[in-house]
Design goal:
Two copies of one chain form a homodimer. Chain A has two domains: 120 residues, Urease, subunit C, domain 1 (Roll); 288 residues, TIM Barrel, CATH 3.20.20. In chain A, 38% of the residues lie in helices and 22% in strands. Chain A contains 15 helices and 17 strands. The longest helix of chain A has 17 residues. The radius of gyration of chain A is 21 Å and the shape is globular. The N and C termini of chain A lie far apart (45 Å).
Chain lengths: 434, 434
């Protein structure tokens, strides 16, 4: 399908200037971003004779921008949403999360992931970095629905995730060949759930494939202190000493990194994926985002799974990234909104190795959202990027396009989905889990 | 107009149990809330012969609940939204807010308030507790649009707000007679902007009318410490020593109350109005909500004005109330979601002296919202109250009714408003302010 978006404001994220003009999509790619004007002249500049539009969309002055990259989630955990809140962390994990997770199968995960995909689309999220059981069925749900998905192994050497490295390696081969919408990273659950032998094996695999590695890292103070007791060093330092990050990667959460850890992140070019909603709700702490930015560390944003957040809303996360930094630093000027927008788009794409989705430009994948500026929370139009971060809400997402396909528009999902059936199935699974 | 809502889930907030049934509205009041069934039998139980419906609304299993009470705001500050962010507090106030405010007139405030009212409706807010310049034009905007509005004097003895107590008293008389949708409270800007003589005059007026008093109170650490230097005691203790709270009232923000202050709040039955979004964005700190609740203090929630938040979104505030308490207490069990829902509805109504709007019950004012549960962030339906607080978003507000009038429904405002004209006017005013 070929789309012409006209009468648009465009925030490409190559710069944070707003272009008033047009954006053309041909198939899965962006063909043109610019001021518009004479179509024949634009075609000539693109070295094409002409183009036939399947649809021309009057944006009515609304904003086009790159879709958000949700750089850490566990999609299928929708089944636990609002089931176990306001509990101490250990009770939540041991009495609620683990016993119910033990009963999940791949088919359930397929259906529960579909529910999460619907929510991503309402929030303008066009790609996710997912860690969960049965990645095959997560991949199936995402590819079927048109969601761009990067998965990462969450192995801890136990049943459930990849119990052996051979299994992870097999998945690394197959799940990276599955579909242009899907890729798969080497990873593991966390230092505190893995043996040293397992960590060494993962590091060896990273070396074999010259590949980055991601993991949950220093989410809580106690896990970080536990590692110091076990190994006499921080989790980051331990992993680095094993060669884990020799080809890049990074950590989810990173609430409790120290100066030395940050220096490793800087030197190795690792990414911090911050999850402020989850860190708030589970009382894990406030990550030192200002310190990361000062060192030039790539910071991306994730919602974490719906069990610990509980929603999958990049607008809430964006406000929290800057708001919590302001509280932590006691400085209302900490972490500018523009930095936050970069984290939610460009930096996420970098962490997830999706360079074709980072900005709106010719040749990039058409992962595009439209933000409704004809809503009271976007008025008056003083400063659009700041408005997005400080006032934006899911309600402003007027369209979500992934790979050139419109999957959500004006509050409606594509007719390819049976939305009520996805809800019914999720509720049925919850009931069956007891 | 008479409305019959059927096929509804109903959270009355008298209890937090969910009723499956019907809600009837007659004129501006709720006539019936219950399981529904035989209409003739219900009519008989209500001692009426029959009722003619103007409209019968199939709720499709969605949720009816009391509208949210936004217990602290400065509506007309929409003009400053996203105009001066990521600045240190003093620079923000002195270089941005005050110079632009000095140029505002009553007509501008009328238009800028209308923009805020639109946003309240999208967030399910059915009454506001507003402090700003020219309360006559704020009242006009609210009454014309159908928004329930309680205003409070923000005097500091300067031009702009009530420059004299005589002026405040005149407004106390006239603005409390204006319209059933409107009332007016005695108040003042803050301890640090008022002379002791003025504070004594305000306290005398509270005694004369046996009336509650509200003010900005201990928003920042420095203002609280400043009062200790000026008077040798905290702002709360100072004001109480002047008899300010002898007929109730309370404080906005209350981030920095100490034990003694809390004891005054408890004894005098005062309300804390917490503003977590604003306190986060301006790095003012995290209010000790758990400590307030432990003492049985009435805690309500406000958005503060759009200059310091920047949006008027009770869902974001509700998440922040519990989330920030969890971070402050380092306890994921701190401030249960049910408490937060009470704050956003019942406690707000108590602070604002709107006892007819607190819950859904026969004889109460029909200030009702419908929450769309057919959205992915509300599924599966494990626990509706927790879902509202942890996952809820403006996008879930399917209808907002005030005083028996539907003002917002399915993303559309009532046709009585010219929405684009309100936007145009707000942008024009911003341009004229330079």
């Amino acid at each position: 399908m070929n789309y012409r978006f006209y009468n648009a404001k465009i925030l490409t994220m190559e710069t944070t200037d707003i272009i008033e003009g047009e954006l053309w999509v041909q198939g899965d790619q962006i063909l043109y971003v610019g001021k518009g004007g004479d179509a024949a002249a634009i075609c000539q500049s693109l070295s094409i004779e002409s183009i036939l539009w399947d649809r021309e969309i009057d944006c009515e002055g609304n904003l086009l921008m790159p879709g958000f990259k949700n750089a850490h989630t566990h999609s299928a955990m929708t089944f636990l949403r609002s089931r176990a809140d306001d509990l101490p962390l250990s009770e939540w994990l041991n009495n609620q999360v683990f016993p119910m997770e033990a009963k999940l199968d791949g088919e359930m995960i397929y259906h529960l992931t579909k529910l999460a995909v619907l929510e991503y689309l309402t929030s303008g999220i066009t790609s996710i970095f997912d860690m969960y059981l049965t990645p095959e069925t997560t991949a199936r749900a995402c590819v079927e629905m048109g969601m761009r998905c990067v998965q990462v192994s969450g192995t801890s050497g136990q049943e459930g995730f990849e119990a052996s490295l051979a299994h992870m390696e097999e998945r690394y081969q197959t799940l990276n060949q599955l579909d242009p919408l899907h890729s798969y990273f080497i990873g593991f659950h966390a230092e505190y759930t893995c043996s040293k032998a397992l960590l060494e094996q993962v590091a060896a695999m990273a070396h074999k494939y010259k590949a980055p590695v991601f993991t949950h890292l220093s989410e809580t103070k106690s896990e970080t202190e536990g590692c110091r007791e076990r190994y006499g060093m921080s989790p980051t330092k331990l992993l680095d000493s094993l060669g884990m990050f020799d080809y890049g990667g990074g950590g989810y959460h990173c609430v409790w990194l120290d100066e030395e850890d940050m220096e490793i992140f800087r030197k190795k070019g690792l990414s911090v994926v911050t999850n402020p909603g989850s860190n708030t709700k589970l009382a894990s702490g406030i990550a030192p985002i200002s310190a990361y930015l000062k060192r030039g560390i790539n910071v991306a944003i994730g919602t974490d799974g719906p069990a610990s957040n509980n929603c999958l809303d990049m607008f809430r996360e964006m406000f929290l990234v800057t708001g919590l930094a302001k509280l932590r630093e006691q400085d209302a000027a900490a972490v500018d909104a523009l930095e936050v927008l970069k984290m939610a788009t460009v930096n996420g794409a970098k962490a997830m190795n999706l360079p074709d989705t980072d900005v709106l430009a010719k040749g990039k994948q058409a992962d595009i959202i439209m933000i409704d500026l004809h809503q009271p929370n976007m008025q008056p139009i003083n400063n659009i990027p700041k408005n997005l971060v400080y006032s934006g809400s899911k309600q402003n997402v007027k369209m979500t396009m992934i790979q050139g396909k419109i999957l959500y528009e004006n509050g409606q999902f594509t007719k390819a989905y049976d939305v009520e059936e996805i809800y019914r199935k999720a509720n049925e699974i919850v009931t069956s889990l007891g």
